[in-house]
Specification:
With about 450 residues, this protein is α+β, with helices and mostly antiparallel strands. The protein folds into 2 domains: about 230 residues, no CATH class; about 180 residues, Immunoglobulin-like. Helices cover about 25% and strands about 25% of the residues. The protein is built from 11 helices and 20 strands. It is elongated. The relative contact order is 0.13.
Length: about 450
């Protein structure tokens, strides 16, 4: 494993994670984002406190009721395959969001603070940690806890921490970096192994620092703490999701899933759907889920500019889903409402969330028929906050609707009792299902 974080971690035991300049790698946008953030905060002070909080929470989760509640938090949203919850919200409400009863994690938090006052420093003040949590909106991520481990059987727990600077540093050196975060593995059944993180002889110094990533977390229960504010929904700022000028055609119950272009008439409606998609590997670096957006470009009636639409925006794909090649239901009923005869092809552009407030656009080209001639039109898509083009391609209309069942060397998968051929763009797989009213 390449530890791109070693620049930070080499001095972390003495002071905690100093920060170095980005390496020259041609990733100018990443460097610019990194430099901007460094003007806004002191990364050493922030990470020092984040590490302190992470170790404190390691002690909190020695409480068996707190561990059970941690697993229960997976049910707090629709994505029950991972744990992603705001520590700030938990402390503010003091409530398990599922049982609506008092939070066992919060109770263990204050109990651990009292233990520190008795065993370590009389002036220990948990409000200092709470202020840090609130000010930075600290959350917990545990991508592989659910389905791999049970709270009653845990004997060890790895607590880890993430900062955006870590991710940027890794990506400047390797654009395909899968991600890793520093942390410590704790024996949660040893009540005497108390973490006195504010003393120079603190016993966690004797533990070897680990680097958590996907492979590690699959075998070792791991919770990552950080300010994951970018995992919240972002406003794309473009006024809407479905573009175009025509209102949607109501779906017909009398349609077929394939047809030759020669069989179509001027009154035929070619509606294109994408019922499901999946990732065969996480796109964004550990420990984040992916946020997938899809843009479509089609030819317009006249002019040089194509028509753009965005069928869905930032659909979450957990790392569990990617690890298990699990299909995700597309949140859009169609991706093209009526693929017209003059629109020779469509541009299909996939975006994913990136780790800083950059904006990446992509200009796509499509062909459109005007009588006996064919011309090219272009349109620019993307450009919203933290957007990153992941992959793109062009689909020919006649080729797409003629045989959607064919195995294109990527396998087939069922939809409504019929097998359809899987399309593939890097690690993004999907099916295209025409609904053709002849």
């Amino acid at each position: 494993m390449k530890h791109y974080l070693s620049i930070y971690l080499s001095i972390s035991i003495v002071t905690l994670l100093g920060f170095s300049s980005c390496q020259e790698s041609g990733q100018d946008e990443l460097k610019e984002g990194l430099e901007t953030m460094l003007k806004d905060q002191d990364p050493v002070a922030y990470e020092n406190k984040l590490k302190e909080l992470t170790l404190f929470m390691g002690e909190v989760f020695k409480d068996p009721e707190a561990r059970r509640e941690l697993f229960d938090l997976a049910k707090a949203d629709e994505y029950e395959e991972d744990i992603s919850y705001s520590l700030k919200t938990l402390l503010e409400t003091n409530q398990n969001p599922n049982t609506r009863q008092g939070s066992a994690i919060v109770q263990a938090f204050y109990k651990n603070a009292e233990n520190h006052r008795l065993a370590q420093e009389e002036d220990f003040d948990e409000q200092e940690l709470i202020h840090f949590i609130n000010e930075n909106e600290i959350s917990m991520l545990a991508p592989y806890m659910i389905g791999y481990f049970e709270p009653e059987s845990l004997t060890e727990l790895t607590v880890s921490w993430w900062t955006e600077e870590m991710e940027l540093e890794g990506l400047t050196q390797d654009p395909n970096w899968k991600g890793e975060t520093p942390g410590f593995k704790l024996n949660i059944n040893d009540e005497d192994n108390f973490i006195q993180f504010r003393k120079s002889e603190a016993n966690y110094f004797s533990n070897e620092m680990i680097y958590a990533d996907d492979d590690y977390a699959l075998d070792n229960p791991t919770v990552v703490f950080g300010s994951f504010g970018d995992d919240a929904s972002l406003d794309p700022g473009d006024g809407g999701i479905i573009g175009g000028t025509n209102p949607p055609n109501p779906p017909s119950s009398n349609f077929v899933n394939h047809a030759s272009c020669d069989d179509l008439t001027q009154n035929s409606i070619v509606r294109l759907t994408m019922p499901k998609f999946r990732l065969t590997s996480s796109i964004r670096s550990w420990p984040h889920p992916d946020k997938i957006s899809l843009c479509i470009v089609l030819g317009a009636t006249s002019g040089n500019n194509g028509i753009t639409s965005r069928p869905f925006y930032e659909e979450k794909v957990t790392r569990w889903h990617a690890q298990n090649d699990a299909w995700v239901t597309t949140p859009a009923s169609f991706i093209i409402n009526n693929w017209q005869d003059r629109q020779v092809d469509m541009a299909f552009v996939v975006f994913n969330r990136r780790p800083y407030a950059g904006r990446q656009e992509f200009t796509a080209s499509v062909s459109v028929k005007n009588g006996e001639t064919t011309s090219t039109q272009t349109a620019t898509v993307g450009g919203w906050a933290r957007s990153q083009r992941y992959a793109n391609t062009v689909f020919n209309r006649c080729g797409t609707i003629n045989d959607p069942y064919r195995n294109k060397d990527f396998g087939i998968t069922p939809h409504n009792g019929t097998q359809f051929g899987i399309e593939k763009l890097r690690d993004f797989e999907f099916i295209l299902v025409p609904e053709i009213t002849l």
